[in-house]
Amino acid sequence: MNKRLLLLILLFAVLMSLPWLVPHLGFLALAGFVPLLWAEELARRHAVKRFWLWHYGAFVLWNAATTFWVCNATVGGGIFAVLANALQMSVVFGLFRFSRRHLRGALPYLFLAAMWIAWERAYFDAEISWPWLTLGNAFARSTRLIQWYEWTGSLGGSLWIWAVNLGVFGLLRSLDEGRWPQIRPAKRVAAMGALTLVLAAPVVTSWILYRNCQERSEGQVKVVIAQPNFDPYQKFTSMTQAEQTAVLLDLYRDARLSRDEAVLLMAPETFTSDIVLNHIGSSPTMQSFQAFLQDYPRADLLFGASSFRIFTQRSAPSPLARPYGDGWIENYNSALVTDHSGREEVFHKSKLVVGTEKMPYPRLFGPIDKALGGVMGHCQVQDEVSLLHCAGGIPFGCAICYESVYGEYCTEYVRKGARFMTVITNDAWWGDTPGYRQHLSYSALRAIELRRDIARCANTGISAIINQRGEILQQSDWWEPETMRGEVNLNSEQTFFVRHGDITGRVCTLVFLLLLALLLVRTVSGGFRPKR
């Protein structure tokens, strides 16, 4: 029995990992949970003890195979991410196993699917949020299958995965138990037809949308994306900020800009660390940019900065402020836009990376962080999304790095009027691993959900221009200094997902809560317990 369970667990880990590791294999997730469900069925039939170790191990393998690269930036953080994320998945699966003792028929499986998607939805807004393996992200490198994300967002993909997996598992279970031949032919045809419809309808719908989705263009904005390729681990020791700025400006010059050309110049996340928000104009980097832009009066420059605000008051202005001389200092991860006139626009990152930018649950982790010497990030966030502007006032959104993982969050940019999107990031912390390729692919999901062109600027790659169908039109090489020229289309129409948000997640959460209430009633009343 243990060998059979081990084989099924390994098969589950392989089927669920490959969509994140190999392009165009997203369809494997449509059967990825079948081996795990079958292992659970065998464990129940044979009264296998401590099966939670098996399913927790399965989730650890899946998480480790797909997100091991986090350890390149922080070994402790990477291990914690794998084990903690797998634990949450395992708790969800464990509650499903418990529900089988009190709910009949298909209800436990409906409970599992609804509970999983409800958890994914809640995870987007959790204090410790790591939704990298949201099931719908399995199709991030198979975008022709999920053009209907413009209606449902990525959780629609999660629902599709569960619907197909449960349908296939139900069919296999009927065959294994010998019930299938006893079912009347009409019901067998109906069951097979329903499964085929659940599997094929989204594919056909996506194909129709893909073929008929014309680029919606209300004009264009020219972009020049500079990828300076600085090693982030040596960025602050091998070169001065002035030298780095010179490299970036030379990349723009290589693009042979015209003096009369209206263009958005892009630089990556955290390009500089000398922006004092109290006096932005005093920044040497900002002064160099504005001097450069005197020769290009119709150009705007978007760049990332590790910025900070200084306070001279005696009391701390916020719980995250740190002592600084006789006052206090607050840190931000920011995106700024400037031009030849000295215009300054600022947007601060809101979705922070836990640990490096954000200390979750300060009362719990504060003393730990203090004992470790203050290793956790203390960045402030912006209360709500705001837009930046270019080309004489065209509004656009700028997702800073990790923010591009959050679909419903990104809809706020479009609701506020963004006509195209940008992403600035620094993915080099992970080395040449699947991490930066996965991160790029999530921008393709956002392009489909929002139906907005996206210009993406990365420090070391991959920089890219993505159209409204999620197709990567241009992309840079990894770990190469490079300049990319292109155009993004402007669009002011809003998709169903933008207008109404994550309906799939809300409905599944409601279904989960209703079934949870039923489960609690059955548990308290000592309801249905299947015979072993």
Walk me through the structure.
- The longest helix is centred in the middle third of the chain and has 28 residues, at 185-212.
- Strands 1, 2, 3, 4, 5, 6 and 13 form a seven-stranded mixed β-sheet that branches. Strands 7-8-9-10-11-12 form a six-stranded mixed β-sheet, covered by helices on one side.
- The chain folds into two domains: 2-214 and 502-525; 220-492, Nitrilase/N-carbamoyl-D-aminoacid amidohydrolase (4-Layer Sandwich), CATH 3.60.110.10.
- β8, α13 and β9 (421-425) form a beta-alpha-beta unit.
- It is globular, with a radius of gyration of 25 Å.
- The protein is an alpha/beta fold and 532 residues long.
- The mean pLDDT is 94.
- The protein has helices at 2-21, 34-45, 51-67, 75-99, 107-123, 149-152, 154-176, 185-212, 235-238, 241-254, 284-293, 362-371, 407-415, 434-450, 496-500, 503-525, and strands spanning 220-227, 263-266, 299-311, 322-324, 327-339, 344-348, 388-390, 394-400, 421-425, 454-458, 464-466, 472-475, 482-489.
- The protein has 16 helices and 13 strands.
- α1 (2-21) runs parallel beside α3 (51-67), α4 runs antiparallel to α5 and α5 crosses α16 (503-525).
